[in-house]
Automatic annotation (TrEMBL):
It comes from Ramlibacter cellulosilyticus. Gene3D superfamilies: 3.40.50.11780, Immunoglobulins. InterPro entries: FN3_dom, Ig-like_fold, Tail_sheath_structural. This is Phage tail sheath family protein. It comes from the Bacteria.
Length: 872
């Protein structure tokens, strides 16, 4: 009799399978990058999963200085290294922007807005232009522009009662439904504007009573007002203020709110709606400008409220709300929610790039202009400090990349000291720089990364660009040869006197300057020549005109030679005495190279990685390092007693040899091309990307050497180790060489810095980090289990299954499991004394699989046959 399978009736049957066991290994593909940016949070690390996410938070790059020898710009390396990380296979990384204490945020005026803050004691108001601060410090906000739009709701109100402190208005319940507490209400009476904040609303039988607080009144300046009668300002028939004055600084922006009178105690304020240059600047005087806009001054609230309450008349009230828009270039970057009387702590959301400075709760934003659309857009106020100073990077040192209080501790106590420092105050604070690995702004940062890179560690540092002599007059040129003598002298050919240059202002920060010279005769034309050398061997004519001045704009740093002559018909003059104008390089230039800072940063990275126990520090070298310098740097990291005495942070001690296995050194730099731009950067980001991609695809125990680096087209320097002896020297020094191979640009080796051969391969260190993370992940589940034979069997079974999974995936050497790994939790380890102390020990013994570095193929001739055999 044959067995028949059970039959089922037609239909649909739902089955819910049991959830799969979570046997996934801990992630080993997440990197932690520390470096420079122009914007983004400084204390809190941010996780990003694409280059676009990185650029949205930190921008596209940062200009640092100019190279002292080549004069080429030196830029931050965080952006290109993060780009390379994702292009080589990385999927997720943490970014921590670092800067010094001098970092400063950009400040923006709010177009048409006046900030009113109550005076101490509650007597009247003090005023200032309303402003916003960049949400994150640094020069990255310099490219942003902000505009404001006022939204107006209208309702009819009638006074109930009030005084200078509070006012109650009646209106319909339907009209009051449009209001919310915190709204700004404006009522105009006899030209005076009364502003107040809505404190509360009460309704009854179809009527509503609106309670107002923070009353502030403004009245327009009129003809004859003392504030507008100082000789340089006046009120026109339309009621607009005109101010005509010499302006030494930058022209104010349309929409700015400007003070009138004493800048320290302004008597009135006006919103700029028009600006015109009446006279351009000369060498002796600043430009004469005329500014125009509506002007307002404070009015007394009490008489206004008293008169209105006595009259009891109905008035139109406006509910004023403000919305902000931020642009970068022509693209809208952010739009704020609708703001009420002033943007308090909850007014601007966390993603908006600007925030309102702290001010009292009673403060008001008073619109001096009714702006129906987002126009005009204004830039941040000019700052005296350079962009690099405001980025907090004027001083380059290892202190920027680390927590200085932890710099002196050895790797075996670093984690404990970091925890103690993290919890030392009344409120835990995130650790700075690379030490955020032990306690950042989020628990995920402490747990996730297993790769550490600091691309900007390779910079030499910088100093302010030296000052130059901007204007220097040279020796006079010989007079022209007189015309040949004849029987008659031609009076019309008499030479003109040579003009002479008059010194003007030194070149400005943008490289602009104006040349002035004397006017030797009416109607003469002046020929101005420029040359790059004082001999004027290859001079070019810049200008040939009646004008006795010439303005140059945006000249790059360098020296420029000029001379001028006059021409009037057949008459001409000799050349003037030449003048040399030197445009100084603004900003900073790099220092001569010293290895102290880089050694300090790399030592701190090795200690941090070893202190965590599951992190690999990926180290890089400056672009100019040759083979000898690279080897010397690797040896210096291993030297426990550096020449010249003790250093700080201290060198790795003889008892810290384990830390060397937590770092790998790579050189030279990589070159890629993006949008016709050549990018040069150290290889640490690409190495992290390859390690991350390999960990995701195959496992962290797989060596990544000899895999082509995507998009890399060249190396810098290109000929670091062209022959075998030089490559052998780098191999012996355990410097991982990036080199050209037939199939692409590859990492030729994957060694850590340790001299201990079993721990030298990078994949061994990564495998042990994986085991550590797996053991901690599984071990915490047994903390409160009864300490007995059942626990021992459970632990042995669980860890045995974990190691067997790794063995089957090729992480261990050997053909049998018992030769590849061992789990020991027996009585030899877990003695009675340890059990009584509440301890349970387990030892995991593994034989890591080593990468195949060299394969020898022996070619043998046997008679008339040639055979090849692998030699093991």
């Amino acid at each position: 009799m044959s067995l028949q399978p059970p039959r089922r009736l037609p239909g649909v049957r739902f089955e819910v399978p049991p959830p799969a066991l979570d046997e996934a290994l801990p992630r080993m593909d997440i990197a932690f990058f520390v470096g420079f940016a122009t914007r983004g949070p400084l204390v809190r690390a941010v996780a990003v999963e694409s280059l676009a996410e990185f650029e949205a938070v930190y921008g596209t790059g940062i200009a640092l200085a100019r190279d002292r020898d080549t004069r080429e710009p030196v830029s931050g390396l965080l952006h290109p290294c993060v780009r390379s990380f994702f292009s080589q296979g990385g999927r997720r990384c943490w970014i921590l922007r670092v800067a010094g204490a001098s970092v400063e945020a950009s400040m923006f005026p709010v177009p048409g807005m006046l900030l009113a803050t109550p005076r101490e004691g509650g007597q009247g108001w003090q005023f200032a232009p309303a402003s916003l601060r960049a949400a994150t410090p640094g020069s990255g906000a310099d490219t942003l522009r902000v505009a404001a739009r006022t939204e107006t709701l209208v309702l009819r109100v009638r006074p109930v009662e009030g005084d200078a402190e509070a006012l109650s208005l009646s209106t319909t319940a339907a009209a009051a439904a449009q209001l919310q507490a915190g709204d700004l209400l404006r009522v105009e009476r006899d030209g005076v504007r009364l502003h107040a904040r809505v404190e509360g609303i009460g309704t009854s039988a179809g009527l509503a009573v609106v309670r107002l607080r923070s009353l502030c009144a403004l009245q327009p300046l009129v003809q004859g007002s003392p504030a507008a009668d100082d000789g340089s300002s006046w009120i026109d028939e339309a009621g607009l203020l005109h101010v005509r004055d010499r302006l030494a600084g930058a022209m104010p922006q349309l929409g700015e709110v400007l003070p009138l009178g004493d800048p320290l105690a302004p008597s009135a304020w006006f919103a700029l709606t028009q600006a015109e240059v009446v006279e351009t600047a000369t060498r002796d005087r600043a430009a004469l400008v005329e500014l125009q806009g509506p002007a307002w001054e404070e009015a007394d609230v009490a008489p206004l409220v008293q008169a209105w309450c006595a009259a009891g008349e109905e008035r139109v009230a406006q509910v004023l709300r403000v919305q902000l828009q931020v642009r970068e270039g022509s693209a809208v970057q952010a739009l704020s929610p609708v703001l009420r009387s002033a943007p308090g702590a909850s007014g601007l959301d966390a993603v908006f790039p600007l925030v309102a400075p702290a001010s009292p709760d009673e403060s008001l934003w008073l619109p001096l202009l009714d702006l129906p659309g987002f126009s005009p857009f204004v830039a941040p106020w000019p700052r005296e400090r350079s962009a690099l100073e405001r980025d907090g990077l004027a001083d380059f040192s290892w202190h920027v990349f680390a927590e200085p209080a932890l710099a002196g501790y050895a790797s075996d106590v670093l984690a404990d000291r970091a925890e103690a420092l993290l919890l030392a105050g009344g409120e835990p604070r995130p650790l700075r720089g690379m030490h955020a690995l032990f306690g950042g702004a989020g628990a995920e940062l402490v747990d996730e990364p297993t790769l550490l890179a600091i691309p900007d560690a390779v910079h030499p540092g910088w100093i302010p660009a030296p000052e130059v002599v901007a204007w220097e007059e040279g020796e006079a040129f010989p007079d022209p040869e007189p015309p040949a003598a004849g029987p008659f002298a031609d009076c019309a050919a008499e030479p003109l006197p040579a003009p002479s240059f008059e010194r003007g202002a030194d070149p400005d920060a943008a490289g602009g300057f104006t040349l002035y010279w004397t006017d030797v005769e009416t109607g003469a034309t002046y020929v101005l020549e420029e040359a790059s050398d004082p001999s004027f061997a290859a001079a070019t004519i810049l200008q040939e005109a009646l004008a006795s001045r010439y303005t140059a704009v945006e000249r790059p740093g360098g020296s420029y030679h000029f001379r001028v002559r006059a021409v009037l018909g057949p008459r001409r003059s000799g050349w003037s005495r030449p003048v040399r104008i030197t445009v100084g390089e603004t900003g900073f230039v790099t220092k001569p190279w010293r290895s102290d800072e880089l050694l300090a940063i790399h030592r701190l990275m090795l200690r941090s990685a070893a202190g965590r126990g599951d992190v690999l520090a990926v180290l890089a070298l400056p672009a100019h390092f040759d083979r000898t310098q690279a080897i010397a740097h690797a040896d210096a990291l291993r030297e426990p007693h550096p020449a010249g005495g003790p250093v700080h942070p201290p060198a790795l001690g003889e008892d810290e040899a384990r830390a060397l296995s937590h770092g790998a050194l790579y050189h030279p730099w990589l070159v890629i091309v993006r949008d016709r731009e050549v990018l040069r950067f150290p290889p640490d980001g690409a190495v992290c990307g390859q390690l991350a991609g390999s960990a995701l695809r195959r496992g962290a125990w797989i060596a990544v050497a000899n895999q082509p680096l995507r998009d890399v087209v060249a190396l810098l320097p290109a000929a670091l180790a062209p022959d075998t002896p030089q490559r052998q020297a780098l191999l012996d020094a355990q410097v991982n060489l990036v080199r050209n191979a037939p199939h692409g640009i590859v990492l030729s080796t994957a060694d850590t810095l340790t001299p201990d051969a079993p721990w030298r391969p990078v994949n061994v260190r990564r495998l042990m980090a994986l085991l550590r993370r797996s053991a901690l992940k599984r071990g915490v589940t047994y903390v409160f289990e009864p300490n007995g034979p059942a626990l021992r069997r459970t632990v042995e079974r669980a860890f045995g299954a974990m190691l067997d999974l790794l063995f089957r995936r090729g992480a261990f050497a050997g053909t049998r499991a018992d030769a590849a790994y061992r789990v020991d939790a027996g009585e030899t380890l877990n003695t009675r004394q340890r059990a009584d102390a509440g301890q349970f020990w387990v030892e995991l013994q593994v034989a890591p699989a080593l990468p195949l570095e060299f394969l020898t193929v022996r070619v043998v001739r046997e008679g008339d046959r040639v055979a090849s055999r692998e030699v093991h």
